[in-house]
Design a protein that fits this description.
The strands form two sheets. The protein has a five-stranded mixed β-sheet with strand order 2-1-3-10-4. By secondary structure, it is of the alpha/beta class. The chain has eleven helices and ten strands.
Length: 261
């Protein structure tokens, strides 16, 4: 039985609801930073993992084609909340979530390459004048927060580059492929079928899903916002992100994307 990493956020519920129903895989829940470590260390075989994890260890993984967690404009769950305008954050302390790998690097890229400013990044002071949050905490803040200034990092990226942003890739360990190729191939086919059907009846998912503090309309609105594609345009955005990440010293080199076939 393959062990699959399940991001414990609302954004992937339409995918994992269907995977859970199959009862064919061991699902391991966690935030992205936990799942990144788990797949790197062999605790899981495959999963939706931060694209920065692939960039840092491409020799360990294959990318499963045609699927990602992406955004084309707004994402609503990767957010900067600030007491001052973004242009005034130079030298200001900003709390960065410890749940993310990709998003904190995205924020650093935007600060330095788009705005030319250098905040003070903190992973300890949750009471800082500004914070970057991801996942359900960010989503709740987007709909219910009272910060003076709220910025969607995907929107900032799209305005800056004109490209989609890819937050997570489905990746599988090369060791798993060597040992269980047929199982992995079947899983990839199943995943493709689930992805293609994932948004056909979102209203029906509300019978199985609740998010305290969000209305049914807001939940469906969010699911419709998330994009699961990995087109050529998405890959251009991903490689652009990798090139910026290398420029600011967050990865050693821009990796080639090695797909499972």
């Amino acid at each position: 039985m393959l062990s699959i990493g399940q991001i414990d956020y609302a954004n992937v519920y339409p995918i994992f609801y269907q995977l859970e129903k199959l009862n064919k895989y061991k699902l391991v829940k966690g935030v992205p930073s936990f799942l990144n470590s788990a797949i790197r260390e062999g605790g899981i075989d495959a999963g939706f993992c931060s694209c920065i994890e692939y960039a840092r260890h491409p020799e360990k993984y294959y990318v499963i084609p045609n699927i990602s967690i992406s955004c084309l404009d707004k994402v609503k769950s990767v957010m900067l909340f600030s007491s001052v305008p973004i242009e005034e954050l130079d030298g200001v302390e900003i709390y960065l979530t410890g749940e993310s790998g990709t998003s904190v690097v995205l924020f650093e890229i935007l600060m330095r390459e788009r705005y030319g400013i250098n905040p003070i990044f903190s992973k300890d002071n949750a009471d800082a004048p500004a914070c970057v949050l991801i996942g359900d905490k960010a989503l709740f803040g987007t709909y219910n927060g009272d910060w003076n200034h709220v910025y969607d990092l995907c929107s900032l990226w799209q305005e800056f580059t004109g490209l989609p942003f890819v937050f997570a890739l489905w990746i599988v360990r090369k060791e798993t492929v060597e040992d269980k190729y047929d199982e992995v191939a079947q899983f990839v086919q199943t995943l493709d079928e689930i992805k293609n059907d994932s948004k056909k009846n979102l209203a029906a998912l509300l019978d199985h899903y609740t998010f305290k503090g969000l209305s049914s309309y807001q939940i469906i609105d969010y699911w419709e916002t998330i994009n699961y594609d990995l087109s050529d345009n998405h890959i251009q955005g991903l490689l652009k992100y990798f090139s910026f990440a290398k420029k600011i010293g967050r990865i050693k080199k821009v990796p080639a994307l090695e797909f499972f076939v």
